Amino acid sequence: MRPYAKVIIRPLITEKNAIMKEAQNRVAFEVAPDANKIEIKKAVEEAFKVSVEAVNVVNVRGKVKRMGRNLGKRRDWKKAIVTLKEGSTIEFFEGV
């Protein structure tokens, strides 16, 4: 198994994810494009010392953007939405 730092790239901290965290105890991460649900579950449990109930994965396609008359494309990436078991929490910016 890979180290968790190679699986979890960064947490996704948005207003929508903050609401989801409060209401459903779910957090979102950007993960490695070749990571699977089992690797993501083990990485989150190891990194944050929490119990994971379920993992949902979404492949996000990059948008096509114009730069003047040229077309460019943002990169594709993978998002993991992790449901934590009751009583488990991950604190990102609670003290700020």
CATH class: Alpha Beta
Number of domains: 1
Q: Cα-atom Rg, whole angstroms?
A: 15 Å
SSE string, helices as H and strands as E: HEHEHEEEE
Biggest pleated-sheet summary? 4 strands, antiparallel
Coarse morphology: globular
SS-based class? alpha+beta
Strand content: 35-45%
Beta strand count? 6
Provide the CATH architecture: 2-Layer Sandwich
Oligomer: single chain
- The DSSP helix count reads 3
Mean pLDDT over all positions: 93
How would you name the CATH homologous superfamily?
RRM (RNA recognition motif) domain
Report a brief summary of the structure:
This protein is of the alpha+beta class and 96 residues long. It has helices at 4-7, 15-24, 37-48, and strands at 8-11, 26-31, 52-60, 64-67, 70-73, 77-84. A four-stranded antiparallel β-sheet has the order 1-2-6-3.
Fold topology:
Blueprint: H1 4-7, E1 8-11, H2 15-24, E2 26-31, H3 37-48, E3 52-60, E4 64-67, E5 70-73, E6 77-84
Antiparallel strand pairs: 1-2, 2-6, 3-6, 4-5
Keywords:
96 residues, four-stranded antiparallel β-sheet, 3 helices, two-stranded antiparallel sheet, Alpha-Beta Plaits, 6 strands, alpha+beta, globular, 27% helix
Describe the structure.
This protein has a single domain (4-84), classed as RRM (RNA recognition motif) domain (Alpha-Beta Plaits, 2-Layer Sandwich), CATH 3.30.70. Helices cover 27% and strands 36% of the residues. The chain has three helices and six strands. The chain starts with a helix and ends in a 12-residue tail after the last strand.
